[in-house]
Structures are given as structure tokens and as C-alpha cells.
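C-alpha cells
===========
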Amino acid sequence: MTVQELYGRIGGSYENALKVMMNDMIIGKMIVKYLNDPGCEKLKAAAADLDPRQMFEAAHALKGASGNLALTDILALTSVLSDEFRPGHARTMTDEQVRAMVDEVIRLDEKVRTEIRAFAG
């Protein structure tokens, strides 16, 4: 599987990753490092009690990791979640909506990790 094919499978933007990282070798090396990122586990733990500070920190960290790698599907959801729990921001989503969004992030993260493992072979 090529890096471009991997990005097609994981809901990412190969074009954006290429703009930042310049070539497939660097993209491939960096995307494999995502397997060690604890962001989704931290988000899952924070969602257990929806502590605003922990939710913001976990969502914001995962937003950064997914943004750096151009994982656009995860980036879109974590952007919403980090804004929802940003200090000083009034919440607009119900707890149920937040938990559903976290569940979707977890699902996408699992898919991304499965595909990266297949890519790394």
C-alpha cells in the first residue's frame, strides 16, 4: 500500500500532508508514529465524566496530532470538541451529543490505527 492509498483509507488529506511533509518517506515515517499517540485514550477517559478541563485538553491535543498528520475526519470532530470545552466558552451540545461525537472519534481512531498497522506491515 502506498502512502497516498493509506490516506484514502483513513479519511486523511494526502495533499495537505504532502504540502507539510514534502515527500512520501517523511509522511510514512510520521504517520506510523501516530500509533504511539495516547490522545484518543485520554479523550475516552475524559469523556467518562465530561470534566471540562480534561475534555478540552484531550480534544485539543488530539486535534493537534490529527491536524499535523492531515487526518481530516478526526481533525473535524476534535475541533468541535475542543471548541465545545474551550475555557470561557458556553457549552452548546448536550452530554449525549458530546459522548456520541467522542464515540465517533474512537471509531475513526481505531480505523486509522488498523490501516496504519497494515501499511507498516
Summary: The helical segments are 3-9, 14-21, 24-33, 39-47, 52-68, 72-84, 95-120. The chain has one domain: 3-120. The domain at 3-120 is CATH 1.20.120.160 (Four Helix Bundle (Hemerythrin (Met), subunit A)).
